[in-house]
Amino acid sequence: MTKLDYVYASATELLTYFRSDPDKILDYLEAIYDRIRKVEAKVRSYITLRSREEVEREAENVVKRLKQGEDLALAGIAVAVKDNISTRGIRTTCASRMLENYVPPYDATAVKLLKESGAVIIGKTNMDEFAMGSTTETSAFFPTRNPWDLERVPGGSSGGSAAALAAGEASLALGSDTGGSVRCPAAFTATVGLKPTYGLVSRFGLIAYASSLDQIGPMARTIADVALLLSVIAVHDPKDSTSIPRNGKTDYYFKLEELMSSRPRLRIAVVKELWRGLEEDVERVLHRILDRICGEHTCDEVSIPITRYALPAYYIIAMAEASSNLARYDGLRYGLHVDVEGRSWIEVFTEVRSRGFGFEVKKRIALGAFILSAGYQEQYYIRALRVRRLLKNEFDRVFKRFDLVALPSMPIKPPRLGEAITDPIKLYTMDIDTVIANLIGSPAISVPAGLAATLPVGIQFMGPPLSEEKLLYAGALVEELRRGAALKPPI
Amino acid sequence: MGDVRIGLEIHVQITALKTKLFCPCPADYRGKEPNSHVCPVCLGLPGVLPVINRDAVKYAAMVAIALNCKISDRLVFVRKHYFYPDMPKNYQISQYDGVGSTPFCREGFLKLTINGHEKIVRIRRINIEEDPGRITYPTGDIATSPYSLIDYNRAGIALLEIVTEPDIESPQEARAFLTKLINILEHLGVTDTSLEGSFRVDANISLGGGSRVEIKNIGSIKDVERALAYEILRQRTIIERGGIVRRETRHWDPVRKVTITLRAKEVEEDYRYFPDPDLPPVRITSEFIVSVRRSMPELPDMRIERFMKQYGLDRYHSTVLVSQKWLADFFEEAAKHYTRYKKLADILITDFLRWVNEYGIKPHELRARPIHIARLLELLDKGLISIKIAKEIMPEIVRSGSDPEKLIRTRGLLRITNRDELQQIVREVMRSNPKAVEDALRNPRAINYIVGLVMKRTRGRADPKLTIELIKNELQRYKAS
Ligand SMILES: [Zn+2]
Q1: Same-domain pairing of B143 and B123
Q2: CB under 8 Å to B108, separation ≥6 — which residues?
Q3: Residue A486 — pLDDT band, cuts 50, 70, 90?
């Protein structure tokens, strides 16, 4: 393979290649580092990039293990990990001043599984601060740019992971998705992002934004690669009480191949309320692909009026939980340190939290604390939970008749830098089609649907809990239809 | 006194647990290097998640059953928010009676007998929650210390919070309630209350329907009684002077023996309770409760009944023995070696207990073994020592745990039963006290004086029956001559 071939090859291809010649892993990593050297200054995907020497040392060990005949599911594959997923010995900042120098003493379960499978973590990717945002602009350090158009955002909050994939700076990536944070940047960068069923992937080590909504999600450039990565990280974890109990691993890659050869007919619901307010060219791209899918499968329009309350319910629940989850950052045990001499703990806590958190984070903590306060909890939080329950009931009904729901990933094209972040309504309404999956605990996937002019558009499929196989299948169908359309960004 | 209303909120650590409530750290933190029993979970590091210690639920269920509570059908944890440096997450995982949440159990009661009267104290609820860390002040005092240190070894230790209704009407009742509660906890094996800090009480008290004053963090039953007595006096004085008792939280100073204002409490604090999303509700099945009930050790009330039946003791002796688990255990162990149970119970609740209390020996420090008391009683029964000697060496047995047989031999305390030996002593005593002999010859009752002299000479070791017999024989000889 040439250097650029290495960089844009799928993990699936690379693995076959490495199996016959393990030493090629080092050539591949060299190509990745060369690519990073070339594009990183423009894109800025990474907050922390690991040193090439360190990564090479690790890779040499993987080569050795391969040569000894070990079966490693992700041998030598360069993985970018979002900076809210704990990595032992590697700084994990959540893109916040609060954790600028925080080095976790333990690995998140997902990271542990990656390492065991021979994957090589190449760096920690940029994100919205504490995952609060949809553009990667609330990062306390710098914004990441969209490799398709450097004037535009890559989406968020897992923008760094998506941009790294699109720019060829990693072959696989982990993101996290609380209200669309994996699917939004996937849609904006023409990559694939899956938000698994709540409880499928362990949250242990994922720095919480909103615990009842958060999931770690696999990201890649192809459906098959997402299936591969999901197979590695979707394992029951006794350290996470919300982890779904089950035995062993599921080989999603194999299941996908099976479905692609048997090609069962899917029953797809189109929820009409979720197809409103799209940008015209986005709508055109989505309809073109949906029409072709519906030509081979059964599609029907359904109406779920209560979806109009999904967005406010989502923000209320997310902010309430965030205000609680982020209470621990007081600078006492870790994190931002300020001068404590002669001051009371209240003064110290106040300064740490004033200086450590950015505006968006402070806003959500303040609103969340208000939402949970006595006298208002009933009015906001409890009502939001009611909406959540109703939504779940409605979609349970839909999933009795349909395999999947098809919907847009993002109603708009990637905004220009500064465009969305200055307009909170615009910023929050971007998530209108993604938050439902988190509220009802369902899996959902965003797959590249094509380009609107020069900008990527993603289509989303959502299914009942544990329907990941069907989502991957639907994604693969879209991928198949799109064959030949350019996927590599101009960078 | 009829207008006093006292409610108690008791925090007890489940010291029976090997590990903390939500992480695998060892729970025996006492006396350990500060911050050595910690892990990412109990330090609240970013990204960690709690996992419930199932045994804690089992112990909580035992306490709930013992206190006649209704156990909820779901185990729901909530987060209680407030910023404080000893709380790693700045919220405490606890339980709560609210929308979407429920306490572990509620509506129980504990029956007491006070001066022969029956008294019922209702239990409002019991919660399972985590203990915070410990803040220590280098000078021992918050006001004078230039800095403070935090030890998180205690953070995450499992606590039970037991809350009563305000049914208690005097400090004495509060003591009786707490004594019985502790006894139950010890019988269940849930809590070893002799461990420092394993048992803390908050008391709220109001007089004549006035404002409720809360006294925080009282460390012992004795101090609860004292603090309440002080507080009744303080509030009564204010009322008698025409003042109004303020609603506030006070602190008990065990050294100066007064309560002091901690903070005025105009409004309820807002802890922003909500169900912990990291701990999904777990169903508590009736099968689980049945299995806990089946595995429960004997409770004090049942044990008293058994003592009466099995050992033929009366209610008084049984109650006193069972009022402290260690004492009841001590009795049963000694009873394996000595079967005159009434006599055993007697000596334990009188002489033995007196010296244990006198020396202030904590049950776990006690060196005397049950078999020692059994042996002592055997020596007594065989007439090898006198009751006087037995009483004399009891403090030594209690304090040092010496074997009474050895003690008696090494100190030459065996009773003198040898006829020749004693006869010689009697003769010597009578020879050197002619006046006493004269008196005795005139008045047979004066013989006791001579007995006393012999006892004095032998330090009580002379066999009393034999001594009298020998003196009488001697007197006959005097008469004859
Ligand atoms: Zn721990």
Answers
A1: yes
A2: B64, B67, B68, B69, B70, B122, B123, B126
A3: low
Q: What is the CATH number of the domain that holds B461?
A: 1.10.10.410
Same domain, B98 and B213: yes
Query: Cβ contact (<8 Å) for A212 and B277?
Result: yes
Between B46, B88, B278, which is nearest A242 by CB? B278
Which chain A residues are Cβ-neighbours of B268 within 8 angstroms? 374
Can you give the residue range of the structural domain that contains B340?
298-410
Residues of A in contact with B100 (CB under 8 A): 382, 385
Residue B246 and residue B150 share a domain: yes
Looking at the fold, whether B285 and B302 belong to one and the same domain comes out as no
Give every CB contact of residue B180 below 8 A, 6+ residues apart in sequence: B110, B112, B300
Please say which residue of B410, B428, B456 terminates a domain: B410
8 Å CB contact of A324 and B81? yes
Q: Which of A86, A211, A330 sits opposite B46 (nearest CB)?
A: A86
Active site residue A38: no
Q: Please give the ipTM for the structure prediction.
A: 0.95
8-state DSSP, A357: S
Contact pairs from chain A to chain B, CB under 8 Å: 102
Q: Which residues of A touch B81 (CB under 8 A)?
A: 324, 327, 372
Exposed/middle/buried for residue B143 (C-beta within 10 Å: 0-12, 13-18, 19+)? exposed
Both B309 and B206 in one domain: the answer is no
Task: Look up tokens 């060892």; give the residue.
Answer: B26
B391 and B442 share one domain:
no
Alpha-carbon gap: A144 to the closest alpha carbon of chain B (Å): 24
3-state secondary structure B438-460: HHHHHCHHHHHHHHHHHHHHCCC
**Confidence grade of residue A397 (pLDDT, cut at 50, 70, 90):** very high
Decide: B192 and B15 in contact? Cβ < 8 Å.
yes
Same domain? B203 vs B61: yes
User: Chunked in runs of 10, what are the mean pLDDT values of chain B (481 residues)?
Assistant: 87 96 95 95 97 97 97 96 95 92 96 89 97 89 82 96 96 94 94 90 89 89 93 90 87 86 72 96 95 93 92 90 92 89 87 83 82 83 77 79 77 73 82 81 82 81 81 80 71
User: Does the beta-carbon distance from A334 to B45 stay under 8 Å?
Assistant: yes
The SS3 call for residue B112 is strand
Q: Which residues contact B233 (CB under 8 A, 6 or more apart)?
A: none
Q: Which two tokens stand for residue A81?
A: 């990990």
pTM: 0.90
Clarify whether residues B431 and B305 are in a common domain.
Answer: no
The neighbour count for residue B387, using CB atoms within 10 Å, is 11
Q: Which of B349, B379, B410 is the last residue of a domain?
A: B410
Domains of chain A: 1-491 (3.90.1300.10)
Sequence-distant (6+) residues with CB within 8 A of B90 are A327, A328, A330, B44, B81, B82, B83, B84
For range A272-297, the mean pLDDT: 94
**Residue A176 among the catalytic residues:** no
